[in-house]
Amino acid sequence: MRRSHITGTLALFTDKTNTRNPYQDRWINGKLHYTGMGQEGDQILEGNANKVLAETYHSKALTEVFLFETHKSIRDKRKLKLHKFIGIVQMNGPEYFEKENGRLVYKFPLEVVNGEKIFEEPDLRNTEIESQKKQQIVDEEVIKRLAEESSKRNINLNNNNKKGQQSERKVVKTRVYERNEYIAAYIKLLANGKCQLCEQDAPFKDSFGVPYLECHHIEWLSEGGLDIIENCVALCPNCHRKMHSLALEEDIKKLQLVKQE
């Protein structure tokens, strides 16, 4: 948290680039449950920005709160971090305590009120799905959860009700980055049917008989990367998903070397 007394504003940063980050923020149903200040011991409200944020809900303080997402800069060798502005946020409920890493921390439920929450494929790491991936849920637990959810929705698991119930619809704002289709086609042509990361043949051919590969930007467009030949490679679907899910440094370096050859 960064507070400015001059402008009467509070800047919040949610950082997923550090695996040892003591602040475990998480998105749930479009709301960010933001972790308060304090890296050691139980967190407190008094004497820090936690109180400032809490007062925006309890006493309707006029402090404007701005939310930023922190990302790694792939292109910068100094490993500087980039901060993407999400929008103005406000608390949509009171703060609450949660035990985390052996200590009590404050969580502040926030919603974006002026701006848009951007849901992109790379951002899946920043959702509740991330914590779920760390748990190995056995088949019995999956069946139990399905039964509980089905009971809530009045779905007949025995298929007696053929019509069933329609899935809930949600409207989600998405930012789409325009791409040059000719650059993508040229990159795939240069790859000659082989993935430029795993170096294996494309897994299948499309309806035109062309080996199926996907164009990937080494430095993502969402982080300031350019849609140019020098920043594009052709990957098989598996490696493409791997790059967006893990973005391993050794894979990034390999693809950068490929472009230099």
Detailed description of the structure:
The protein is an alpha+beta fold. Helices cover 24% and strands 25% of the residues. The protein is built from 6 helices and 10 strands; from the N terminus they run E-E-E-E-H-E-E-E-E-H-H-H-E-E-H-H. Strands 1, 2, 3, 4, 5, 6, 7 and 8 form an 8-stranded mixed β-sheet that branches. It has a two-stranded antiparallel ribbon with strand order 9-10. The radius of gyration is 23 Å and the shape is elongated. Residues 117-138 and 160-165 have low confidence and may be disordered.
Q: What is the strand and helix layout of this fold?
A:
Elements: E1 2-4, E2 9-15, E3 26-28, E4 31-35, H1 49-58, E5 64-72, E6 81-91, E7 96-100, E8 103-115, H2 128-133, H3 139-153, H4 181-191, E9 214-217, E10 232-235, H5 237-245, H6 249-260
Parallel strand pairs: 2-5
Antiparallel strand pairs: 1-2, 3-4, 4-8, 5-6, 6-8, 7-8, 9-10
Concise overview:
The chain has about 260 residues and is α+β, with helices and mostly antiparallel strands.
Give a quick set of tags describing it.
alpha+beta, 261 residues, two-stranded antiparallel sheet, 10 strands
Binned strand content: 15-25%
Low-confidence stretches: 117-138, 160-165
Helix content: 10-25%
Let me know the largest β-sheet.
Answer: 8 strands, mixed
Helix-and-strand structural type: alpha+beta
**Rg (CA only):** 23 Å
Task: Quote the distance from N terminus to C terminus.
Answer: 44 Å
The overall pLDDT average reads 77
Counted by DSSP, the helix tally is 6
Written as H for each helix and E for each strand, in order along the chain, the element string is: EEEEHEEEEHHHEEHH
The backbone outline, from C-alpha atoms, is elongated
Give the beta-strand count: 10
